[in-house]
Amino acid sequence: MKPPSALTTPPLLELKSLNVSFAGRDGITRAVKDLSYTLRASETLGIVGESGSGKTQSVMSLMGLLPHNATVSGKAVFNRTDLLALSQSELNRVRGKDIAMVFQDPMTSLNPHLTVSAQMSLVARRHLGQSKRDAFAECKRMLDAVRIPEAAKRINQYPHELSGGMRQRVMIATALLCKPKLLIADEPTTALDVTVQAQILQLMRELQTDFATAVLLITHDMGVVAGTCDRVLVMSKGERVEENFVEPLFATPQHPYTRTLLAAVPRLDEINIKLTPPTGTTPLLEARGLEVAYPVDSNSFFAPPNQLKALRGVDLMLLPGETLGVVGESGCGKSTLARAVLNLIPASAGDVVLMGEPLRQLTATQRRAMRSDMQIIFQDPLASLNPRMTIANILCEPLDTYHPNLSRAQKLRRASIILEKVGLKREQLGRYPHEFSGGQCQRIGIARALMFEPKLIVCDEPVSALDVSVQAKVVQLLIELQQELNLSLVFIAHDLAVVRQISHRVMVMYLGKVVELANRDEIYSSPRHPYTRALISAVPIPDPKSQQRLGFAEISGDLPSPLHPPSGCAFCSRCPLAEPRCANEDPPLRAVGRSMVACHLAE
Amino acid sequence: MRRDSNQGHSLFRIAMQSLLSSKATVTAFVVMALVVLLTAAAPLLSPWAIDSTDWESVSTPPSVETGHYFGTDDVGRDIFVRTLYGGRISLLVGLSATMVSLVIGVFWGAIAGYAGGRTDQLMMRFVDVMYAMPFMFFVILLMVYFGRNIFLIFIAVGAVNWLDMARIVRGQALSMKHREFVEAARAGGVSHLNIIRRHIIPNLLGVVIVYVTLTIPQVILVESFLSFLGLGVQEPMTSWGALVNDGAALMESAPWTLFFPALFLALTLFCFNFIGDGLRDALDPRDRAGEP
Amino acid sequence: MLRFTAKRFLGAIPTLLVLMVLAFALIRVAPGGPFDSEKQLSAEIQERLNAAYHLDEPLWQQFFRYLGNLLKGDFGPSFAYADYTVSELIATGFPVSLKLGSLAMLLAVIAGIAIGTMAALKQNTRADYAVMTAAMTGISVPTFVVAPLLVLVFAVTLQWFPAGGLGNWQNLVLPVIALALPQIAYIARLTRGSMIEVLRSDYIRTARAQGLTQAEILLHHALKAAVLPVVSYLGPATAAIITGSVVVEQIFGVPGLGRFFVQGALNRDYTLVMGIVVFYGVLIICFNFFVDIAYRWLDPRVTL
Ligand code: SF4
């Protein structure tokens, strides 16, 4: 927390009734309406809101980064100058120097064609007037300051050779090169995995103190806000709905919108959703020793192609009416697992058993028949719907395969029943996917999966592309459908809090292996694997008072390349507890207490 | 975007709307249509035949009185009629050769892209090999040795142009295969044939249409190039390319013999290119306006 | 890098073989021979000529004989230009074509990229529309219309440059421009499109947020990415320039390889035609190799 003097210093940035509007095909859209706020030196202000709230546009306008069809009015006084009144060249003397910015996706925000040093030193040379050599040295110093391992080597590499976390560190290092008075961070950790997000947030907090920089943090994540900001401004539909210091805002939200927003946030530390227990005891689905390998181009001319082992022997079991949550960071193989279970990609070893039938031994026709029992819901709701088909055709298509003798009217009747079940109207059957919002598209995806009463639905990150409030509704819908239709769900997500809400059991994956498997409460209250602990402690909790963690050691570094997984325990390159034997012996998944854990040290 | 009517608005209709909202593209369409109509109605518009010579007016400039609207050439043939008939040949060559390349290219590309793996590698390796051929030379050889046969021109030019089409279609099919809606269809048990028919081809169509509109002018240009070398269509038939080539020789004495065929040729190519560009922009989901 | 070179080298072998088989077949299957265009030669002389040039052997044998000679660097004698070997003819024609072609290519790339970039910066303004309409016209008007027009305007009327022939640089100006024009237009359109795309990308937004000037952004950040499509177009562009040079050499009376080829084809000069096809095939393969290396240099994400 800041010293109280921060409140008495004169404002660094003062926004006075900022308006942003865009001229488009359907007339003028007002993205930001009459927004005013102040920010003092070395203070952190969080601006939260869901997509379409205008939070990003409000800061883009300060930086002069809006597209040409935007109109801006109002005042933004920074250091006694109105940013909105500056000419392009005057603005160029401020941005990058006194105000710096960090963007959401470090992959696309860094120039893929330039080395790290090339793009960093351009900034140093422009604003600090340094020579090539000085600029290079300065960049190197800055990379060390953001704690990039092996900075001397990294500085000459290209962005694609760095991991996501390192790229964002480079972005931050570049932003801080000129010791700006204000740092604008637009969703700086949204594209990153939780463990990396925790590292980056930690780094930003430290650097802010070191450099005495004021920070404008734009985010949709209440957890990030709670742990990072002094004050919070909540935006909705272009307007400020509430502004307060962080603690009172979370403790006593005034505006109904803030209250719904806070209520919708899934929390890791408390569950508010009751689940009905599984309805059967004979497994509906089993996977045994499932392995999937993709060929990748080898580095040698004559050698056979390399194998990328996305799954390295996964067992799972699912009861009727049960939900199995699968969590892990990107690259852990969870999406591959989803597709392998459904036989959408061939397994290189192991087998999937559905209702006692090993899928491998079935003929292609039989396997196709089994398909109607298992369905899938995808992450990107819009991409999973064929843009050239109407909703009616999308929903009816699978019926053509399994019930070819149904009449069109019968199919449509079924489609409209299902559509209403997922909360849409039957009148919408004639529409095309692009006419729906993300949440609605996901409902259509669910409807498609339900068209012929499947027993199992694999949900591959079904809510991660949606806003929190929409997320909550979709999760609720899935839970209701499960109860009503006795569905079994495999729920794959990177968001532990969401998984906790919906799952009976949770499976944690790392580099294509299961590292821990336990009941939902067990795994969150007493995680046993060091990786599970790290994951849980990395999740930001949307409560400024409970920011102190469960006390587990944070993990450092990034995921190793799945092409060359470490020998022995997959986690040993990042594990804080690793012992010599971890590097040699692969720990088997064994029962520890009421959990299954793959760690030599777990007890 | 959301409306209350029950009828949805397909992407195609939206693309058409945006296409037709651009005055320039509409103009290009209208000019195009006029040219096609004129060439189709050629015999009705002038008393002269394509190879009839009017000995009273040799190398006369355009005039309404003589009925030679575009003038005559050095042997007294009517340029107006010849331009229109030449247009028939040029357009015909353009369309048919493009169709040849379309059929081969889409077939080759879609199979390679959807099949993937070894099949894909082999098929595309073949395309690579073909790419390294100095194809124009082969076409010239064909024309020289097998006579100036118009069907040969179709096939020869089509055979050259399918390579690009195959590459484009293959790239699209490959990326389409991993799109989630195709996976969803597979999870729904839809057969490969139906996936290609319902999901892959309709989504490829946009790119293919654009490419077709851009290929037609290329082919017309190739034909005119052959005509220039004296390897195009044979007398008494003619084409824009042949006419332009004849006209270029008379450029100083009878400039109209060059001007009108060249105008028609350039105008047509221009319109095709323009419509192609417009289509590409309209089918591109990203909004092209605005942004710096 | 070494691996890539080796791979491409090995890959070029089948390509060249296919090229030769195709060209050989095309030339030989066609009716007519090199010696039947002349005034009626007696059957005996015909036979003897055929035997001298091994035309009486089965086709496959001739092919392998040709291949064998080729490996020794021997393209064989020309049928039509007696006393000359094909190698000698290529050696006289190629330098001229090379000079013409490379100058045209250079002009096309520089002017095309410059014009395209300017149009992209002024996107959707009058200047943009004007330039792009001009470019579209450049693509739509065939070279053999443009070339005589250039002659008419600059050589006959204005008398700035000579209408053709060879000699000093003035002779080259018009042919080079005629050859480059459609390519300038094409490259300008390509550059404009990709430049607009690049200027819209996230990393350009980052650069703008860093307070870099327009010039710095263009030069350091945007140009490399924006010329990538141009680089991949260089392969087809070479092919287009080689074909175009056939026209331009004809019109301006430049004694380059293109003219030799057309003459050779009309004369049934088997070895000359074959030689030029193979020569250009090798040239295109080499050129594509360099283009790939340039691409790799510009885009570090592509691995060779
Ligand atoms: S086995 Fe060793 S390295 Fe692996 S998680 Fe356990 S302690 Fe860490």
Explain how this protein is built:
The complex is a heterotrimer of chains A (603), B (292) and C (304). Chain A is α/β, with parallel strands linked by helices and 603 residues long. Chain A is 33% helix and 24% strand. Among the domains of chain A are: 1-98 and 184-263, P-loop containing nucleotide triphosphate hydrolases (Rossmann fold, 3-Layer(aba) Sandwich); 105-177, no CATH class. Mean pLDDT of chain A is 86; it is low at 1-6. By secondary structure, chain B is mainly alpha-helical. Chain B has a single domain (2-289), classed as MetI-like (MetI-like fold), CATH 1.10.3720. Chain B is 71% helix and 0% strand. The radius of gyration of chain B is 23 Å and the shape is elongated. The model of chain B is unreliable at 1-6 and 285-292 (pLDDT under 50). Chain C is mainly α. Helices cover 77% and strands 0% of the residues of chain C. Chain C starts with a helix and ends in a 6-residue tail after the last helix. The B-C interface holds B 128-138, 140-142, 144-146, 217, 221, 224-225, 228-229, 241, 244-245, 248, 251-252, 258, 262, 265-267, 269-270, 273-274, 289, 291-292 and C 11-12, 14-15, 18-19, 22-23, 26-27, 29-32, 124, 136-137, 139-145, 148-149, 152, 156, 199-200, 235, 239, 242-243, 246-247, 250, 261-262, 265-266, 273, 276-277, 280-281, 284-285, 288. The structure holds iron/sulfur cluster. Iron/sulfur cluster binds at residues 530, 569, 571-572, 575, 577-579, 582, 587, 599-601 of chain A.
How many strand units of chain A? 22
pLDDT below 50 for ≥5 consecutive residues: which ranges of chain C? none
- Label the structural class of chain C: mainly alpha
Mean pLDDT of chain A: 86
- What Rg of chain A do the Cα atoms give? 26 Å
Number of helices of chain C: 12
Strand content of chain C: under 5%
Low-confidence stretches of chain A: 1-6
Largest sheet of chain A: 8 strands, mixed
Report the helical percentage of chain A.
25-40%
Helix share of residues of chain C?
Answer: over 70%
Number of helices of chain A: 20
What is the CATH C level class of the domain at 1-98 and 184-263 in chain A, in words?
Alpha Beta
